[in-house]
Design brief:
alpha/beta, 60s Ribosomal Protein L30, Chain: A, Alpha/beta knot, 6-stranded parallel beta sheet, 5-stranded mixed beta sheet, 9 helices, elongated
């Protein structure tokens, strides 16, 4: 196992480029023993591991082959939190089928339009897996699924739930139509969620925090659903809305 001390080392430089998002490598930063173990168990492949001590990777001896011992100062620079864990790793996500192939073999899809907050996205990924969604589709304009905050909020679900990003709405609607999917958008003027009967194959669209779904998507969707609310509350956090809608889908389904 090598010890790296300098930020000028090519390996450290590569890692710093990834976390600064100036590199196009699709690697996900995972911090702490628990999440790293989740990633490995889910089939993700570790590409680089950085640890302060050998004890920090004692939970997974096989990581020693690709682990570099670095000073605490380097860990701090690579980490996305103020008090970093003593070990972090960069993972490539497990392989997955093409979007069209996945849709053909799905019954519930969650589609997000321009979601900006990585905490919301991570929570939605975790909720979607828990409620039985087949896949998550991120339309163009959503925040990156490779943001470390997404991985923390998803708590391992990032590695298990098939997720497709930077998808064109026009292309998606064509694939959904060919696969006989109902397209349902979450909208305050829609049918009461409790009265909605979900079709066998449903794609549910949720819009940007504050602005909701684009007019293009609202026009294309075949139906709309609304979450009944009391008091003077006009809207809910998008992650909360996803949780309520998917719970209702799963309750009626199973």
């Amino acid at each position: 196992m090598k010890t790296l001390e300098s930020k000028n080392n090519p390996i450290i430089k590569r890692a710093l480029k990834i976390v600064s998002r100036t590199n196009s490598e699709n690697l996900l930063l995972v911090e702490g023993q628990k999440l790293i173990a989740e990633a490995i168990a889910s089939g993700a492949e570790a590409q680089m591991v950085f640890a302060e001590t050998l004890q920090a990777i004692s939970f997974s001896p096989e990581l020693a082959k690709i682990c570099f011992l670095v000073p605490r100062a380097i860990i701090r620079e690579l980490s996305s939190v103020q008090t970093p864990a003593p070990v972090l790793a960069f993972f490539s996500l497990p392989s997955q089928p093409s979007l069209s192939e996945k849709i053909k073999n799905s019954d519930l899809l969650v589609v997000l339009d321009r979601i900006q907050d990585p905490g919301n996205l991570g929570t939605i990924i975790r909720t979607s897996e828990a409620m039985g969604a087949s896949a998550l589709i991120l339309l163009k304009g959503c925040c990156s699924r490779y943001n470390p905050k997404v991985a923390r909020a998803a708590m391992g679900s990032s590695f298990r739930l098939p997720t497709f990003d930077n998808i064109s709405p026009a292309n998606l609607f064509k694939i959904l139509k060919d696969a006989d999917f109902a397209t349902i958008c979450a909208d305050m003027h829609g049918t009461d969620l409790q009265k909605l009967s979900f079709p066998a194959r449903s794609a549910i669209f949720f819009g940007q925090e504050g602005q909701g779904l684009s007019q293009e998507i609202l026009k294309e969707c075949t139906s709309r659903l609304a979450i009944p609310m009391q008091g003077q509350v006009e809207s809910l956090n998008v992650a909360t809305s996803v949780a309520i809608c998917l719970y209702e889908w799963s309750r009626n389904r199973f």
